[in-house]
Amino acid sequence: MNLDEIRCEIDSVDDELTELFAKRMELSALVAEYKRENSMCVYDPTRERQKLADISSKLPDELKEYGFALYSLIFELSRSRQNRLLGTHSGICDEIENAVKNTPPLLPTAPLVACQGVEGAYSQRACDKVFTNPNIFYFSSFEAVFTAIEKGLCRYGVIPLENSTAGSVNKVYDLMMKHRFSIVRSVRIKVDHNLLASPGTKLEDIKEIYSHEQAISQCSAFLQTLPGVKVISCENTAAAAKMVAESGRHDIAAISSISCVKLYGLECLKASIQDKGNNYTRFICISKSLEIYPGANRTSLMMVLPHTPGSLYKALSRFYALGINLNKLESRPLPDRDFEFMFYFDLDVPVYSPNFIQLMGEIQDICEQFGYLGSYSEVI
Q1: Sign of dihedral through CA atoms 279, 346, 66, 306?
Q2: DSSP letters of 177-218?
Q3: Mean of per-residue pLDDT scores for the chain
């Protein structure tokens, strides 16, 4: 057979598969109606395991894995259709609907906002981009920001989540497991790092450089041109600049934003020392209560999935079945559990989408733990 003949055979088989798929989904709808009448759950893991084992036994060894993947997806699509027909709902759906209804149309202009660091930090720039005239309270650590939100000391908190060069801020992701909060907005800030020192300091005099570990990572190429200079991490880029200014020393410098020059009376020895020109940091604005402002088109979730083969695939296939794009997938190890992880998902889906509501109604069935972190828009 030549290629055209083989393709013709494939087309014929695909026609049969399409007809059988449509018939299977019709039968799935009948199953949904039976489950409705008999108050049965859509998800029946025992039945699915039996079906997969039966299908596997009927396939040649070299096709078993392909068959498993194919029918796992078919089962996900079948459940998705059943959930849609049954209008599957959950408590989180009610919370989301209430938040959409009760959240005002605009963020407040001058709320109390918690940020990590000191005046001049990049968190301050992010905060100023989200709010018109924020009243900022500075805290020494990311955990203190989360705690301030939980205790109601501040209405909002602004914290960095990821950088386009250095990647995710793992400390923040780990803290997200410990604290209760909701994301109400995200914002991207262009980051330009500069080498700052006390007036009169020369580059060749520098023996130590201070900054946040992420900023140090983002400027690694420049730092490699300074052999013998000790690089020391600290809690914040602006705190590094403040420390250099208050030290009175002329043998130390800080990697910080250009705004810290005037703020702390420093000089810029070298501007824009980051490795990449398109260096951006993404910040999230968090609150204690669930607030969903108009235009929310992004959602963040966290899940602990069963420690079994295919559990992550099942979650991803739900997104695929509903046509929901995945913007980011992050995993962090669970404390006291060997090689098990908390997964974080950023989804590109409007909160008003019927597919989003359906996802919220059914995704918890496949999770050991589930957390809805909020729906929001991003300021660029």
Answers
A1: positive
A2: TT---EEEEEEEEE---EEEE-TT--GGG--EEEEEHHHHHH
A3: 92
The tokens describing 192, both together, are 């330009």
CA 108 to chain centre: 24
Helices (H), 229-374: 237-247, 259-264, 311-321, 354-362
pLDDT at residue 115, rounded to an integer: 96
Cβ count near 337 (within 10 Å): 11
Helix pair angle (3-37, 64-86), 10° resolution: 40
From CA 161, how far away is CA 122, in angstroms rounded? Answer: 12
What is the C-alpha to C-alpha distance for residues 328 and 312, in angstroms, rounded to an integer? Answer: 14
Catalytic residue (choose from 281, 319, 343, 345): 281
Name, in order, each residue with C-beta under 8 angstroms of 119's C-beta and a sequence gap of 6 or more: 138, 238, 242, 263
Phi–psi pair at 194, nearest 5 degrees: -135, 150
Helices (H), the chain: 3-37, 45-57, 64-86, 91-102, 122-130, 142-150, 170-176, 213-218, 220-223, 237-247, 259-264, 311-321, 354-362
Do β-strands 280-287 and 182-190 pair in parallel, antiparallel, or remain unpaired?
A: antiparallel
Task: Confirm whether 131 is a catalytic residue.
Answer: no
**In this structure, are residues 81 and 21 in contact, taking their beta carbons and an 8 Å threshold?**
no
Q: Which of 283, 343, 345, 356 is catalytic?
A: 283
- What is the identity of the amino acid at 69? A
Annotation marks residue 283 as catalytic: yes
pTM of the model: 0.83
Q: Which two tokens stand for residue 149?
A: 């939100």
How far is residue 375's CA from residue 357's CA, in Å, rounded to a whole number? 12
d(CA 292, CA 288): 12
Distance CA 92, CA 330 (A): 22
Question: Other CB atoms closer than 10 Å to residue 208's CB: what's the count?
Answer: 14
Rounded Cα gap, residues 373 and 377, in angstroms: 13
Q: What is the pLDDT of residues 217-253, one digit of tens each?
A: 999 999 999 999 999 999 899 999 999 999 999 999 9
Strands 341-348 and 298-304: antiparallel
- 95 burial via Cβ count (<10 Å: 0-12, 13-18, 19+): middle
